[in-house]
Amino acid sequence: MTDTESGEASEPVKDQGTTIEPLITKAGGLGDTKEAMEHLRGADENGQDAGISSYQNNSFLAIYAEDDVTKKDTALNVTLSFEARIRQGAL
Prior knowledge:
Elements: H1 3-6, H2 34-41, E1 53-55, E2 60-66, E3 73-80
Antiparallel strand pairs: 1-2, 2-3
């Protein structure tokens, strides 16, 4: 009987320290690791204790939770913010 048949998870793969996890999504989003997201979008603009990560002048927000298997912070909520600019006299 294999580990998956018995319901037991196998040991997580050890991080090599020099590679970054590949993105699950093309532009960085749900399920991607914080490390991969920061590689793509730059450093987190909020402090470590903020509870929410901010990138690109608060236009991309992410909430992470530790994945049970990989033990890495993985995005479970992503919010994109857009700003509309109306030209004067356009209405």
